[in-house]
């Protein structure tokens, strides 16, 4: 990082700032203080606190732990707060060194404990006068969030592989997923990465994104939503594992986000309708048509371009107009013997099953069809 001359008055040269090398830090602090003074950045500490959640997690020993940055007022132990759609009473405040504090003022980043649930990064913390008021605000925020959330139709089946197979034969374009992570920041990062995978034909639908161990309620929700459970740096309880096995709910564990996203991307790619690619093999012209008992009409043809190959697809043209799309060419004979292919200039016999309207002069076009799987 470099500080330009304009950043600190324009009367000194650019300064190299490196936390690793511990160089230029005094100039950085000086510049920040100068800018704060010029911009008149001030906060009133003598008012109820407002803060923003930076990170949150569910700690096994301490319960919900949230890192917040106080922006206005002073946050004190014992304050009743509403954070996003969560409520609680502050029972502990610690700084970056793990020291217990009685209060935290503007611009102080601290960890707080005492919330009933895990808030999301970016949620606002507000101190309120009593618990009833806190729950009223939290309920309003929860309802507003629910209205903003678009929920899709639920489906059965929870294995990623089974869902991929099902979606190939379905018009559905959503992949339901339930995510549990160790911290809220990880869950948000996963959801954000999945959002970036959204395609006009397919997208991931997160039915739940939360923190903490995978429990029985998660398994029940996954079963009802037709979603697999993705665990990032968390594990399922024994009860949840047993229930998942009984209900056929798949649980996948990850500790690297890139691996998680790559797997989901692969499943979503499998949900895309594949492209078909046609490869021309050859043309043949019908020279004569024979009526064979118990077989029907058999065409005597001459290959005029490329090759005709047993097992390939064929179509019949008359005056360069397609009159019949056939399936696979199953009968190809030369001198009463079955052959695999016939080259340009050679003659052979073909039959076309139920299609009997073959005439002299018709053209037989032979081609292969390759199914090309698409990817995101």
Structure notes:
It is a single chain. The chain folds into four domains: 2-38, no CATH class; 50-147, Translation factors (Elongation Factor Tu (Ef-tu), domain 3, Beta Barrel); 160-271, Translation initiation factor IF- 2, domain 3 (Rossmann fold, 3-Layer(aba) Sandwich); 276-372, Translation factors (Elongation Factor Tu (Ef-tu), domain 3). Helices cover 24% and strands 40% of the residues. The protein has seven helices and 24 strands. It has helices at residues 25-38, 131-148, 160-168, 184-196, 216-225, 238-247, 257-271; strands at residues 2-3, 15-16, 50-59, 63-72, 75-76, 80-83, 86-94, 100-101, 103-104, 109-115, 124-128, 174-181, 203-211, 229-232, 251-254, 275-292, 296-309, 313-318, 321-328, 332-334, 337-338, 341-343, 347-351, 363-372. The strands form five sheets. Strands 16, 17, 18, 19, 20, 21, 22, 23 and 24 form a nine-stranded antiparallel β-sheet that branches. β12 (174-181), α4 (184-196) and β13 form a beta-alpha-beta unit.
């Amino acid at each position: 990082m470099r500080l330009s001359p304009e950043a600190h008055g324009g009367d000194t040269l650019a300064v190299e700032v490196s936390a690793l090398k511990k160089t230029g830090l005094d100039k950085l602090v000086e510049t920040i203080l100068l800018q704060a003074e010029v911009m008149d950045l001030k906060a009133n500490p003598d008012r109820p606190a407002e803060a923003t959640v930076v990170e949150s997690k569910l700690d096994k020993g301490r319960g919900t732990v949230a890192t917040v940055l106080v922006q206005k007022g002073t946050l004190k132990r014992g304050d009743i707060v509403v954070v996003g759609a969560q409520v609680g009473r502050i029972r502990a405040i610690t700084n970056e060194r793990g020291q217990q504090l009685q209060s935290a003022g503007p611009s102080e980043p601290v960890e707080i404990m005492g919330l009933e649930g895990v808030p999301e990064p970016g949620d606002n913390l507000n101190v309120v006068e009593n618990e009833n008021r806190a729950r009223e605000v939290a309920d309003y925020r929860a309802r507003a969030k629910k209205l903003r959330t678009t929920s899709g139709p639920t489906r059965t089946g929870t294995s990623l592989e089974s869902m991929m197979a099902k979606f190939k034969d379905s018009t559905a374009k959503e992949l339901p997923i339930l995510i549990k992570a160790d911290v809220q920041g990880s869950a948000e990062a996963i959801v954000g990465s999945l959002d970036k995978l959204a395609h006009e034909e397919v997208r991931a639908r997160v039915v739940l994104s939360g923190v903490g161990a995978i429990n029985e309620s998660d398994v029940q929700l996954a079963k009802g939503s037709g979603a697999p459970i993705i665990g990032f740096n968390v594990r399922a309880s024994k009860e949840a594992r047993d229930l998942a096995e009984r209900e056929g709910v798949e649980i996948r564990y990850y500790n690297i986000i890139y691996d998680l996203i790559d797997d989901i991307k692969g499943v979503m790619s499998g949900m895309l309708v594949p492209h078909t690619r046609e490869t021309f093999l050859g043309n043949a012209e019908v020279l004569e048509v024979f009526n064979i008992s118990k077989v029907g009409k058999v065409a005597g043809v001459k290959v005029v371009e490329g090759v005709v190959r047993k097992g390939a697809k064929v179509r019949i043209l008359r005056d360069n107009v397609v009159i019949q799309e056939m399936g696979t060419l199953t009968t190809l004979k030369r001198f009463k013997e079955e052959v695999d292919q016939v080259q340009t200039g050679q003659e052979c016999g073909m039959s076309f099953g139920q299609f009997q309207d073959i005439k002299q002069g018709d053209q037989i076009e032979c081609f292969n069809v390759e199914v090309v799987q698409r990817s995101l």
